[in-house]
Amino acid sequence: MKKKTLYICHTYYHVYVSLMKEFVKTSEEKGNATIYLSTMSTDFEFLSKRLKDSGCVEDVFTYEEKEPEYFPDLAKYKVQQESFVKAIYNRIKYTKKLGKYEEEYIPEDLKKYDEIYVFCDSDPIGYYLNYKHIKYHAVEDGLNTLRGCDAARCDNTPHFGIKTFLSKRLNWIFVQNGYGRYCIDMEVNDISVLQYSCPYYKEVSRAKLYERLTDDEKEKLLKIFVKDEAQIRKVLEQKTEKTALILTEPLCKDLSMRKKLFNDLISEYKSKGYQPILKQHPRDLFDYNENFPDVLIIDRTVPMEMLNFFGKGIFDIVVSIFTELDNVYFGKEKLRLGRDFMDPYEEREAHEAHFESKR
């Protein structure tokens, strides 16, 4: 009997990686996977239907994973405590209650799956799996997301060692990224770039997953993710000989400042003789079409990796702020601006979490 596999995804990119993982399987193993699309942070529009129509997976569920803030009862457990013992007591209560509260939003019994892969197990789904004692594999959220700051360490200092012991060994609290009691391992793109080692890390190179894609598999991915391939073809036809593809990100809660940020980048590259083109980030809901009507824009629902399928070096330069560019082949030159660039637009603390590889 084929193993039943479940991928729990929070972004378009997560679905893209999940499908590449499915394509690696033998013909006997394929076709028995289910994908969950969490609506907590992403509007997947019509992706569910396109996934079902593709024949790449057996089933697709869209489910309403709830933010912890949705449950008012949890707020009292997040209040800062001077006493370490009191803080741990509150966290034990928070861990159990959040997992329990999420249960009614899970569409089926997850114990029926032989293998479960979870992107962002720091989200409530991780607490739910921990609460139900369901084993799973964690998967790195973006490309080299853990390079600058492993959220497990950042969220659990001080007393990291004690907290991971309470999580992994005793299951009193929950720590993400491999340290949960029921997390089998944590798939990362490249162990060599990580600052800290972890016995639960498992390297699964996304570049290698991409390189082994067949033409047929690439065509299937385009049909799933690109709702209007003609729109991208039109952008490519209208671009000039010298182009700068600027990747947007949902930075600056003040939308007027976000507009200024990308207006400054557009103006800068225009002054250098480039034709600026915007690729909207999947989580960036700012209306770029309305605010920049004279700029060509590639739709937010298209994972940027899909642009690799349209040819190598089709843009002269690809510019990002925090988005990792290691697996970008569609730019002749790549530039990642980083947090120093962001400092004039907002306080550093506001974008610190994006430092070194937020997708």
Structural class by helix and strand composition:
alpha/beta
- Biggest β-sheet strands, sense, barrel: 7 strands, parallel
Assign a percent range to the helix content. 25-40%
CATH architecture call of the largest domain: 3-Layer(aba) Sandwich
| CATH C-level category of the largest domain | Alpha Beta
Low-confidence stretches: 355-359
Q: What is the molecular shape?
A: globular
Q: What is the string of SSEs from the N terminus onward?
A: EHEHEHEHEHHEEHHHEHEHEEEHH
Could you give the count of β-strands? 12
Description:
The protein is an alpha/beta fold and 359 residues long. It has two domains: 5-210, Rossmann fold, CATH 3.40.50; 228-354, Rossmann fold, CATH 3.40.50. The chain is built from 13 helices and twelve strands. It has helices at 12-24, 47-54, 84-102, 124-131, 151-154, 160-168, 206-211, 215-225, 229-238, 255-271, 288-291, 339-342, 348-351, and strands spanning 5-9, 33-38, 59-63, 115-119, 136-139, 183-188, 201-203, 243-247, 275-279, 296-298, 315-320, 331-336. A seven-stranded parallel β-sheet has the order 3-2-1-4-5-6-7, sandwiched between helices. It has a five-stranded parallel β-sheet with strand order 10-9-8-11-12, sandwiched between helices. Helix 2 runs antiparallel to helix 8 and helix 3 packs across helix 4. The two termini are 37 Å apart. Mean pLDDT is 92; it is low at 355-359.
